[in-house]
Please model this.
Amino acid sequence: MRKKVVIFSAPSGSGKSTVVNHLMSKYPELELSVSATSRAPRGQEQNGKEYYFLTKEEFEAKIADNAFVEYEEVYDGVYYGTLKSETERIWKAGHIIIFDVDVKGGVNLKKIFGRKALSVFIKAPSIEVLRERLVRRGTDSEESIAKRIAKAEEELAYAPLFDRILVNDDLETCLKEAENLPIF
Ligand code: ADP
Ligand code: 5GP
Model:
């Protein structure tokens, strides 16, 4: 069995969740990698579903044990990372791993997995369209949208480091292009 991984990264609001959910419902052999984090659960988040929630001490003990494929201190004092045990679990089930991570994590994972990995950057056709989508999604405050747009401008510079770039303009077309990616 080939141990394959597919990495999706995108500025917030570009349609990454929409594309990943579509592919996961179409191809049951794909399984999303659940990251570990030292932040507290938000709202309805459950341990093992959105994240494996660890204390900072537990997370640092796992770093010392070399238990992570990659990890980052994304915010001050808050760690996020992919556990080796998670990748082994998904491969053992005979599934292909899907990573849904930020652009820096995406570039790191591509470096780590090399030819086993297909890395895909998803982007909206323009910053203006991205802003409209974030407004219409209705999940972020005005301030949070402004932050995401500023970050998106920096994140777009990483696009050429990915194997493929999907421009999410017309959704139907984008989902078809996603289905035709060389995943298998
Ligand atoms: P991300 O996971 O990258 O933050 P989402 O998948 O949540 O992005 O998409 C952001 C918003 O834009 C959602 O409300 C989604 O329904 C909408 N959306 C996604 N793709 C398109 C598209 N091609 N055209 C219009 N709206 C879209
Ligand atoms: P949130 O706290 O909003 O769920 O996520 C914060 C950030 O951490 C997001 O940008 C998300 O992509 C990133 N992140 C989540 N899991 C991982 C991971 O395993 N590795 C890295 N490097 N970043 C991650």
In short: The mean pLDDT is 95. Strands lie at 5-9, 30-32, 35-37, 51-53, 68-75, 78-83, 96-100, 117-123, 164-167. The chain has seven helices and nine strands.
